[in-house]
Amino acid sequence: MTRRSSSPELLAEAARFRDLMAGWPTGVAVVTGTAAGHPVGCTVTAVASVSADPPLLLVSLAARSRTLEAIEHAGQFGICVLSAAQRRLAQTFATGEPARRFAGVPFRWVLGVPVLHGAMTVAVCAVQEALPVADHVIVMGGPLWQAEDHAAAPFIWFRRGYWDLCPAGPPPGVLDGPKSTLNRIRFTLKHNDFRGRHGHHAHHRKVPPRSRSAPRRGVGPHRTDRSEAPPWPLAQRQQPHLGNLHSGTR
Q1: N or C: which terminus of the chain carries fewer CB neighbours within 10 A?
Q2: Which residues, other chains included, contact 154 with Cβ-Cβ below 8 Å and sequence gap of 6+?
Q3: ∠ CA 74-244-117 to the nearest 5 degrees?
């Protein structure tokens, strides 16, 4: 593969490129490591699966990152995908003083790597390769240990702000069969409870009474009546603007 050098045109578009990537919704994680027996970590959004056989994932860290230095020295790192309840940790590990990021934060040691309590998904990985690319280093690791909390609620980073999510619909097959109506009610109640616990509020709209003489609009073979509309709209709520979340810079 031929390597192209940076051109003035590309350098001039760096700011616009950041705007482009701000439109990519992504989960938020904290990558952790150990330096001289002390926990270190930073917030990242560039985490991806590389291979399932063998299992490999990658995380992108700034070349000047102190966390990267600790990871390369120890040969191991942790990935903690944050839950909605840990939104403050995302900002703490992104901008807080590196030496104090773990102050008051509950965690435990797994295979010599700090793992945050309350994360949705966690993994401890062995470094397989570290590939320098421009001003970042792509670290590939193979999981040595992992755990998931399926009850935890997710949140994402999108357009420089945090967004909460709730299910867009029930799992496949839930509304099929003779118990479909009962399953729909159960899912709707559970969904509303989810929104209530995580700060979402249903938006109600007053509908004027329809005259008996007024025809029913849109009822036919090409439209589902409003009463049959799915009761699980995607609910999102943007958090206050927090500026750029510099992924893996420290």
Answers
A1: N
A2: 27, 83, 84, 120, 165
A3: 45
Give the dihedral of Cα atoms 174, 178, 179, 180; nearest 10 deg: 50
- Please state whether the predicted TM-score (pTM) of the whole model is above 0.70: no
Residue 177 per-residue DSSP state: S
The number of residues making up the chain comes to: 250
**Contact (CB, 8 A) for 160 and 82:** no
Task: For residue range 37-94, list pLDDT tens digits in order.
Answer: 999 999 999 999 999 999 999 999 999 999 999 999 999 999 999 999 999 999 999 9
Pair 90, 248: CB distance under 8 Å:
no
DSSP letter at 196 equals H
Per residue in 113-149, pLDDT (tens digit) is 999 999 999 999 999 999 999 999 999 999 999 999 9
| Helix (H) / strand (E) containing 148 | strand 136-148
Q: Which residue has the higher pLDDT, 7 or 148?
A: 148
Listed by start position, the domains of the chain span 12-164, 167-198+226-232
Q: 12-164: what fold?
A: Pnp Oxidase; Chain A (2.30.110)
Answer yes or no: are the C-beta atoms of 113 and 141 closer than 8 Å: no
